[in-house]
Amino acid sequence: MNWFTELFTQQTFTQAVMVLSLICATGLALGKVKVFGVSLGVTFVFFAGIVAGHFGIKVDPQMLAIAQNFGLILYIYTLGLQVGPGFFSSFKKGGIRLNLLALALLVAGSAMALGIYWTCGTSLSDTVGLLAGAVTNTPMLGAAQQTLLQMYPDGMEQANSMAMACAVAYPFGLVGMILSVIILKAALAPKETEAGETHAADNTFISEYRISNPGIFGKTIQEVRQTADCQFVISRVWKDGKVMIPTSETVLEKDEHIMVISSRNDVEKIRVMFGQQENVDWNKKGIDWNAIDSQLVSRKILVTKPQHNGVKLGDLKLRNSYGINITRVNRAGIDLLPSRNLRLQLGDKLTIVGEGRSVDNVSAVLGNEAKQLNTPNLLSIFIGIILGLMLGSIPLAIPGMSMPVKLGIAGGPIIVGILMGAFGPRFHIATYTTQSANLMLRQFGLTIFLAGLGLSAGDGFFDAVFSAEGLKWVLISIGLSTIPVLLVGFASARFFKIRYSDNVGMLCGSMANPFALEFTGPVTEGEDPAVAYATVYPAGIFLRVISAQLIMILFG
Questions:
Q1: N or C terminus of the chain: which is more exposed, having fewer CB within 10 Å?
Q2: What sign has the CA pseudo-torsion 401, 406, 407, 412?
Q3: Which residues contact 384 (CB under 8 A, 6 or more apart)?
Q4: Which of 381, 401, 398, 408 lies closest to 545 in space, CA to CA?
């Protein structure tokens, strides 16, 4: 049996792969266990690595560094690809306010952490580790560690201590955020009468109007659009008691009924533009859209032909050529309002309304072959990683700093990933991966990173936790995960009049904590918290990574 013992003890390539795989498998299995409805999920791999390191299991340091760093690079780049398509659009209109409030939460938490560093005698590396754990953001930890080692190449002991601090703070970050949501729910949640209101599953809103504004009588839809200060789509027009699909040349007449799809925030502007809004709830679940008129069908069609990747929707002239209407564009799970200037991406799902034959023709034009999307675009992933590492290696001179700084293996790849996801299709670069494929790559990279991180931090972890310093870490973690959240949450409601559902979604997104969304309660039966979460998450995850680097650079 010596061969079996040596398989896990002799520091070879095989032993490194075996140990890391065993840690990953153990952590992922434990991650399925829920306590009071909450599970640490993939983060359990981190703690499995800590336990392995505590019991003296070691692997070759160079192999561990390669596995850990490559895992971080793969995770952070594919995360950038995922959030890239919605990153810049999240700053438009109502998203600006939510992102600014999320930034306020980041600043408040960072300021509190620096205050603790200056007053409580905790080292900066440990403080940043506690902050990363309190906001449940392991990429933030990885970025801070890389910056620390760039500044102090012999600072591995400090980097390991930072990881231990993050491990201590992480569970309290989860619990603290959930506790904060429960407190906000008790204080800010609307009454039952308000809670019963049904909200759309996204920021788009469907409404019916009777045209009663003389200013648009006899004008075409295109002419009305040119004078409007908001985006909207007219999907149906009732003329002489019949439903029709309008084109840009359709003339709007007095007392005709129209169905308009717009942003929820623009509903009042559109009511003023068209006139009387009909008291019909077109946003409730279970509406049979095909039953509105037997001649019309509503179908979701995938963009799968490469030649349409990055093409503006208006350039295809689908509405005038086929007599159909595109009412929504779903990208990465988020519904976008279609406009002439919206650039299509592979994998976009278009909701199209029209006569059955016309919809079939459009389906042939766009592709609608889901099998074509199953082929992974690995070329763009490896090119993006190369560009990300090159960007992260560029020395940046900052006034007042004695040495240039670098974005590192965390900052560079996430920036390139976001840019590739957002603008790659404009240059006809196929960056699309299915959600399952992207999730697979992200989870694989994160799992390997957490296994290596825990293994390197495990030696001495429990000695640090069960000490006076460890107790102080626990108290700091609870404070960092609750006080900034409650302050910004109450300020958002009191001074900025943010709805409860948007408020808690914004807070959870800024703290990168989707688990807390489960505790928002039945007052948010719609998906508004998830929409607010998705609105601030892209910028939030990016700024958390960059903020960790800035704190280490400016105050280290």
A1: N
A2: positive
A3: 77, 81, 413, 416, 417, 420, 431
A4: 408
CATH number among 3.90.79.10, 3.30.70.1450, 3.60.140.10, 3.90.850.10, domain 204-372 = 3.30.70.1450
Q: Provide the residue ranges of all domains of the chain, joining segments of one domain with +.
A: 2-194+379-555, 204-372
Q: At what angle do helices 408-423 and 378-392 cross, to 10 degrees?
A: 130
Tokens 């690809």 correspond to what residue?
81
Give the separation between CA 64 and CA 55, rounded to whole angstroms. 17
Lookup result for tokens 């009663």? 212
What token pair was written down for 371?
Answer: 């099998």
Structure-block tokens of residue 76: 């952070």
C-alpha–C-alpha distance, residues 26 and 48, integer Å: 7
CA atoms of 63 and 49, how far apart (whole Å): 15
Give me the tens of pLDDT residue by residue for the chain, a chain 556 residues long. 577 777 777 778 888 888 899 999 998 898 887 766 666 677 788 888 888 888 888 888 888 888 888 988 888 888 778 767 666 766 665 678 888 999 999 999 999 999 999 999 899 999 999 999 898 887 788 888 888 888 888 888 898 889 888 888 877 887 788 789 889 988 887 754 343 443 434 456 788 888 888 888 888 888 888 888 777 888 788 877 777 777 777 888 888 888 888 877 788 888 888 888 887 777 666 665 555 555 567 788 888 887 887 788 888 888 778 878 787 788 766 677 787 888 887 778 888 877 778 888 888 888 888 776 777 778 888 999 999 899 888 877 766 555 566 777 767 887 888 888 778 777 777 776 766 777 788 889 888 988 887 887 777 777 777 788 888 998 999 999 999 999 999 999 999 888 888 899 889 888 877 657 666 755 444 445 756 776 787 678 778 888 888 898 888 7
